[in-house]
Amino acid sequence: MTATGQPASPAPAPGAPDERLLRTSPLRRLLGRPELGSVVGAVAVFLFFAVVADSFLQASSFGTVLYAASTIGIMAAPVALLMIGGEFDLSAGVLVTSSALISSMFSYQMTANVWVGVFVSLLVTLAFGAFNGFMLTRTKLPSFIITLGTFLMLTGLNLGFTKLISGTVSTKSIGDMEGFGSARKVFASQLTIGGMELKVTILWWFVLVAIATWVLLRTRFGNWIFAVGGEAEAARAVGVPVIRTKIGLYLGVAFAAWVSGQHLLFSYDVVQSGEGVGNELTYIIAAVIGGCLITGGYGSAIGSAVGAFIFGMTSKGIVYAEWNPDWFKFFLGAMLLLATLLNAWVRKRAEATA
Amino acid sequence: MGAVLAAVLGASLVGCSSTGGKRAEERAAQAAEGRSAVDTPRWTFAMVTHSGDGDTFWDIVQSGAKQAAVKDNINFLYSHHDEAQQQAQLVQAAIDKKVDGLIVTLAKPDAMKAVVAKATKAGIPVITVNSGSAESAEFGALTHIGQDESIAGEAVGDELDKRGRKKALCILHEQGNVGHEQRCDGAKKSFGGTLQNLYVDGTNMPDVQASIEAKLQSDKSIDAVVTLGAPFADAAVKAKDSAGSKAEIDTFDLNAKVATALKDGTLGFAVDQQPYLQGYEAVDLLWLHRYNRNALGGGLPVLTGPQIITADDASELAEYTKRGTR
């Protein structure tokens, strides 16, 4: 098609808006947000349990729900970023347990101040994240395979090493060691506000989500994440450091795994080596409910928090409603489908009218 | 659509069965039902266990608890999660609900310590069941109802001796389960012959069978196999048959299949910890505590096992396993 024969488009009259810039109404912009579907879902779930479960609206119950949500949400935020970047991390669940085990066993075996163990654990956990990212970018294999490998290896290492070093499947208690008190304050303390017990994980969760959102929407790194998740080759062609971005995302997941792991350790002073398996899917579900596309390039960190909140409300709401927990998984699956359908529908509408 | 429906209806009319099926189940259920036998207010008791999804054992515990709940006019709530952190959260949720009594398992005692303390502080009586006999009293629970795994293991060792076995295999289907290790260690301690541990992947039945088969093929002198859960006894029997081994298969726990296998002699013996009793007694003892401040056990755990079951008892028990109470 050529421009010949067609009248040249007139230059915009001075003062008139540039036709390339489309003004969208605030409502439409709101509809275009990835987390909209999940927010609608969260409100629906909240109202639902508020009606059917009489103890759901108590302050103390709300504290429990928030705590449950925060333990998932801390991990879901970086996992959402990773998914926007187009990758998966199936090792995220057991990495939490690994992180707690390393911290606990290092402190105990070395009879060191527990903070030493905490920092050793940070380094090793980040190394695992870097390993994931490095293997992925080097081998160009799908992240599903790479992290499935690390998932299985970590599961084995957790059990094997714990049994080798401690003689049993759980670690020895570090509750009486130096630094435990202060570390517990940081990772597992709680605050009572107006009858509501708030665990410090809720604060960690909010801070991590805020940072993730800021990175995603306000920094160059955030643009890179969207770019590599949308189309990695095209992103590389325009100069986005794809390898660095992906490794960075895996480091983010590792950091959150460290926070969760330390919380696990300092709330119970011992760690069960076989735990964490299956949680990686929980994080992915929270991110997807929150509007992340499984194919990458689209999603939000706030959405993951809403997804985690839905998770927390559902898992505890069923208890408050005195229902048979056998149905929990069904409920969750239905919620996942509904949230994604709603998301897809809203997005299509928003794009069609844009 | 209509044709399919007609076909299904037709088939069910033509093909009536006079034995088993849903109808037999309903008849059995009628026998077990009942009405409240007390006039105490309707208290709410919650049970939070470390069970995974869809576990037969915990179904039996629940049916015991529910039967006692009916009798004692109790609103019985049940929840479970196999991860310590989640289980603790569920206990917290029960405390939020201000239940009148709490039944918990202490499979991962350290994780439950704080939340059990919170419950007792809130004035909720706690009874521990199944696992945690060592920690129960320390955590402030009224009593503990369950089986001592080491004692149960030793009972197995003695029974193997009685049956003249020389070389036994202990099949552990869950890596890292402390209770399982205790069972095999207990058996090793009291058994006169030698006992070897074999780890298998319990979530993968064909793999369980293949592993046992390989072991039996490579060592023909093994004359006894002990599995730690009822479903694995069946896999062990299949493995024995295809390996051409003469070993006797024995197992921990009961189910309908184990009971029939005991009856026809495929299995040597089973060690039962009476899960029904663990649920029933827990609810009943909480009720007694609320009603009359009674406590059982005198500060020591109340043992529900081990009970050794052989072919002699099996025919009666077969019926009870079918209705899901043994």
UniProtKB/TrEMBL annotation, chain A:
UniProt entry keywords in alphabetical sequence: Cell inner membrane, Cell membrane, Membrane, Sugar transport, Transmembrane, Transmembrane helix, Transport
CDD domains the UniProt entry points to: TM_PBP1_transp_AraH_like
Record flagged with keyword Cytoplasm: no
InterPro entries listed in its UniProt record: ABC_transp_permease
Subcellular location: Cell membrane
Claim: Mitochondrion is one of the keywords in the record: no
Pfam families: BPD_transp_2 (PF02653)
Principal subcellular localization: membrane
Region (Disordered): 1-20
Topological category with respect to the lipid bilayer: Multi-pass membrane protein
GO cellular component: plasma membrane
GO terms, molecular function: transmembrane transporter activity
Transmembrane segments: 36-57, 64-84, 115-135, 141-161, 200-217, 283-311, 327-346
Role description: Part of the binding-protein-dependent transport system for D-xylose. Probably responsible for the translocation of the substrate across the membrane.
Protein name: Xylose transport system permease protein XylH
TrEMBL record, chain B:
GO cellular component, one term: outer membrane-bounded periplasmic space
Primary localisation category: other
CDD domains linked: PBP1_ABC_sugar_binding-like
GO molecular function: carbohydrate binding
Keywords from the UniProt entry: Sugar transport, Transport
Location in the cell: Cell envelope
Residues in Periplasmic binding protein domain copies: 45-288
Transport as UniProt keyword: yes
Leader sequence segment: none
Family assignment from sequence similarity: Belongs to the bacterial solute-binding protein 2 family.
The name this protein goes by in its record: Simple sugar transport system substrate-binding protein
Species for this entry: Streptomyces fulvorobeus
